[in-house]
């Protein structure tokens, strides 16, 4: 038996090649699977529980996939809905689906997999020792959990399988591992488990495992011994090199991949070109673990920010930019503390020299003098109002601060009025932990919805 | 002595989740791979990032002509002082490293 998984692209919102998708549908896939998010765009999406992609774009692309599903007569599954996979992002995706179903006159059964966790409940589980850190996890205590705006658990193949078992036409999942939505059906049908997880990792970014990576669409065909990668767009070719190199991509270890319930080991994998487009992979191993764990992601508020930008073009100031910014920070901080009655820990002012060392700070090795420098001022404080007011303290320094008292008052270039820009609440990732479960569904729930 | 950026075909740095950074050095051919593998010490990479060698995971992958390094992110992704949300710029920091004849 084989199980064909059609993957339209690396993420809903990145677009896909319609011709290649049609070609995939003609090949009679067993499921269509697409990812809807990741942590890669930063903590604000998880903190707010919102999508990074435009709703209109998401709707257009999802509509195309719902039509493809109807044509193929197989399930359509999206993982990590709305970038972050919180319940709010799942509801957003469900609303879009409802609108499209009504629009197309489709009658569809939807299974919704929810992955959000109650922060205080997670805090208790941490205190009970059921939540443990992964390498490079930040120091946390029970309060770190309760302070989170959102915590999600990453679902694996078991939870996706449970959703598929409802017989749903469409599965809208919250946070899942990138691979779970692809690996679930092949595993359910008894294909090689190592091959299922490995093929899922290779296919999770769509055609990124082939040439012409922007084309998106790829088919992964799973069987009892391994899997075959078949890119579907014109000019897209998979080679043993492009496929095996994809194990490097955003993986800290290119041979081992941890998933709920075990890990994938591709040390012994063999990559073979079947022709100039398709690659066959065998020898991947799935190693079940003693404990069933799911990874947690959490984001919490990290203060409110106001930013300002100013350009230095005067050669004397470009040359002495570090001295200038250090002097401003010292003088402005003193004034803020005196006039607002704040302590030194109550706020932060950072001035980054863009064009000089804003990428690497003190680790920068190039010392060549640029002809201009953009100064990005970042004020962080405990409320938006306070951050904006400190921005107002900073404004006249950025506009007129002289390097020496002896010179005529300089003026620098502000690109905006008002110069202070509110960034509102900012967020930080604060968990890199796993939760041990006795029942894989214990941290997840499935809701069935019928759109007539 | 050549710089890494002159010998490697491509250097790519990416997030591997919010807490890890991973740098893939694609050498392009066996000669370049040998030069990089032998000439780029883990301690030199650690020095560039201002961390200890023990914090860095290294993979020499002959089949791909790739040398890969993974390390805890210099700043947690998206934290107040993180300059680079997607971790993409860090590749350029390594491109300037001089390759030596030292064993890795």
Q: Which word captures the global form of chain B? A: globular
Q: Please count the helical segments of chain B.
A: 4
Globally, the shape of chain A reads elongated
Helix vs. strand class of chain A? alpha+beta
The biggest beta sheet of chain B reads: 4 strands, antiparallel
Q: Write down the secondary-structure element order of chain B.
A: HEEHHEEH
Distance between the termini of chain A: 34 Å
Give the termini distance of chain B in whole angstroms. Answer: 16 Å
Largest interface: A-B, 44 and 39 residues
Tell me what you see in this structure.
- The complex is a heterodimer of chains A (452) and B (104).
- Chain A has 452 residues and is of the alpha+beta class.
- In chain A, 31% of the residues lie in helices and 29% in strands.
- Chain A is built from 13 helices and 21 strands.
- In chain A, the strands form 3 sheets. A 10-stranded mixed β-sheet of chain A has the order 13-14-10-9-1-2-3-8-4-21, with helices on both faces. In chain A, strands 5, 6, 7, 16, 17, 18, 19 and 20 form an 8-stranded antiparallel β-sheet that branches. A 3-stranded antiparallel β-sheet of chain A has the order 11-12-15.
- Chain A is elongated and about 85 Å long.
- Chain B has 104 residues and is α+β, with helices and mostly antiparallel strands.
- Chain B has a 4-stranded antiparallel β-sheet.
- Chains A and B meet through helix 10, strand 16, strand 17 and strand 19 of A and strand 2, strand 3, strand 4 and helix 4 of B.
Summarize the structure.
The complex is a heterodimer of chains A (452) and B (104). Chain A contains 13 helices and 21 strands.
SSE topology sketch:
The complex is a heterodimer of chains A (452) and B (104).
Chain A: E1 3-7, H1 18-26, E2 31-37, H2 43-48, H3 55-72, E3 76-83, H4 87-104, E4 108-114, E5 116-117, H5 119-127, E6 131-133, H6 142-146, E7 148-153, H7 157-164, E8 170-173, H8 180-188, H9 193-203, E9 218-222, E10 226-231, H10 240-245, E11 256-259, E12 262-265, E13 270-273, E14 279-282, E15 285-288, E16 292-312, H11 315-319, H12 321-340, E17 347-354, E18 373-381, H13 384-400, E19 421-429, E20 433-437, E21 445-451
Parallel strand pairs in A: 1-2, 2-3, 3-8, 4-8
Antiparallel strand pairs in A: 1-9, 4-21, 5-7, 6-20, 7-16, 9-10, 10-14, 11-12, 12-15, 13-14, 16-18, 16-19, 16-20, 17-18
Helix pairs in contact in A: 1-3, 3-4, 7-8, 8-9, 12-13
Chain B: H1 4-7, E1 10-15, E2 20-26, H2 30-39, H3 42-49, E3 57-61, E4 66-72, H4 90-95
Antiparallel strand pairs in B: 1-2, 2-4, 3-4
